[in-house]
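agent: user wants the full assembly modeled, not chains individually. Plan: 1) parse entity lines 2) check alphabet per entity 3) run joint structure prediction 4) return tokens. Steps 1-2 passed, two entities, 376 residues total. Proceeding.
--- entities ---
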Amino acid sequence: MARWEPNAAERLARAALDLFAERGYEDTTVIDIAQRAGLGKTTFFRHFQDKREVLFGGTETDDLLITAIATAPAEASPLDAVSRALEAAGQAIFTPARREFVIRRQAVISANPELQEREALKDGRITAAMAEALGHRGVAEVEARVAAQLGALASRIALERWSQADSDEDFGAIARQALTEMRAIRAR
Amino acid sequence: MARWEPNAAERLARAALDLFAERGYEDTTVIDIAQRAGLGKTTFFRHFQDKREVLFGGTETDDLLITAIATAPAEASPLDAVSRALEAAGQAIFTPARREFVIRRQAVISANPELQEREALKDGRITAAMAEALGHRGVAEVEARVAAQLGALASRIALERWSQADSDEDFGAIARQALTEMRAIRAR
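--- prediction returned ---
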């Protein structure tokens, strides 16, 4: 098996995380981050618009979720399509190999109001993008927004549980379980 | 009927809104805002921690929603309690007298990424506070989070519709209607 070689964006994110933990978010510059990653400032700005953005990985997550929703079988319900999106996130983002990184990243975000704001904005945009992708499947507006919002909540709950669970638990399975619990509430 | 006399926080918010529209958010300082409102910088910081915060009115909205949830009848379902919270918001915040202000405020926020971030963070915190208030009513965690999230979405949809509707339409009634549509989807 080939050694896992992180790409530039991931190397910059990991370097940023180390530096934020070592000297604090405020006292870390973009140049510090690029240097620690063994890259130049220009490379940093090719990937991220500013320092805050380094922990939010560009638009890759959006693309992943939207593609999963778009390619779900025609007969899949809105929540089933959303479930597929969360499973795709489990396969690409919330993997066992990235688990420690994800947990450290969440801890840094939780400790910093500026990062919390950026995360809240990102979450809102991803939710809106999922609703739009459901709309392209012919789902009516309010129903699409409800499904996307429940998907976003299932993702948050799954992330909390996955971070606390044994390291070999599958994020996709935990997310499916959270959505099943939500459906049970809705059925009442 | 007594003339409606805005308080210091509201005067500061209105002055900020005028200035953001006139010269842009970036080129407006806290001192500019306080001066325009006929108040001092100290008064500004007694009400708001920074310039961004001036459009987000402290914790009054949170208190209003949480009180409405806490005082809903014991037999009210989680969504009924949330519906009461939105009606309370309609009576205190999204009133006919404040409609123009609310619409201008949303336009300024939509045009500014920093304000969008703060709004996203506030929305997330209010949603979490509503879920917590439902928890105090004995609602289980996942169900409380689902109801709060659906309430937040109903509030956003209602705000969009209320902003576009005739000026005498009641926000609370529009929010109730949005929640009814959501229940109909859930019942399917």
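agent: reporting back. Confidence is low (pLDDT under 50) at residues 1-5 of chain B. The longest helix of chain B spans residues 113-136.
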